[in-house]
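Weekly structure sync, notes
Attendees: PL, DS, HV (note-taker this week)

Item 1: Golgi-resident adenosine 3',5'-bisphosphate 3'-phosphatase
DS walked through the input record. Source organism listed as Muntiacus muntjak. Sequence as pasted into the shared doc:
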Amino acid sequence: MAPMGIRLSPLGVAVFCLLGLGVLYHLYSGFLAGRFSLFGLGGEPGGGAAGPAASADGGTVDLREMLAVSVLAAVRGGEEVRRVRESNVLHEKSKGKTREGADDKMTSGDVLSNRKMFYLLKTAFPSVQINTEEHVDAADQEVILWDRKIPEDILKEIATPQEVPAESVTVWIDPLDATQEYTEDLRKYVTTMVCVAVNGKPVLGVIHKPFSEYTAWAMVDGGSNVKARTSYNEKTPRIVVSRSHSGMVKQVALQTFGNQTTIIPAGGAGYKVLALLDVPDKSQEKADLYIHVTYIKKWDICAGNAILKALGGHMTTLSGEEISYTGSDGIEGGLLASIKMNHQALVRKLPDLEKTGHK
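Item 1 (cont.): predicted structure, written out as tokens:
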């Protein structure tokens, strides 16, 4: 019974409660919406959705945050790659044939790394387009949260936010570069990579080596944790090339640079780019140029392109054209990568390779 004989109307109590709930809803609706977005609610599995969790207005993303998540994604993917390889149960199969007629292999390492990398990036930045080498199955969707912390090494190099429109961003993921070598247990060639392109231009690159746990990252006009070597041999360069077509490059290189030129056959585009840099990894070979003479996919090269560009280097087609990271997922005509060299002079020296790349 109410005090002093006052009787409370059930209708009045109900109205009062509804008013109170309305006030609470308006106070907390913004907070709750933000929390739900972290769990990717309302998003579609696969590339592209409607607004990054990190952005206040839903229309921009901070490249510093994208770099932090990309580094984490490459490391998380690398953990899966290493775990599967060390289990020695790869579930290896062929996705078909490459243009050169070799098996295009896939393993559990590729699939599990892809799942971790894709959904970490997708949950953190649901609005951006994500292109990845492996198929993303909606039935395998995971919610993988980012703690929203930017590592100190990134903050030290890039002190202020770098906002860009979300719709201008394309992410390229390679969950396991050098799958052929992975199946042969040639671990030093294996990398996981993430690249962020803005309006088709590579601006963020991450290359992670799962078996040595070394990670290189860079942002164009931002900063990096890797640098170029102090010197390069332009007259008789050491040239790193694919293991599958070293002979093609060697013939032209010897004609162009002389008999002292060294050809280094290697697996994985990520490994080959790191060969041009000052990398504190004893298993990493050193080269002066990276040449590729056949069709290649953009997720193989985008991260390396971004890192080289951030350090003042170049990666172009063999004819010297810049590579756009929009549209199709591959490029014809091969590529040439260099740093601290006259890149266009190198292009002019290698016309026969440019012709080979278009065959």
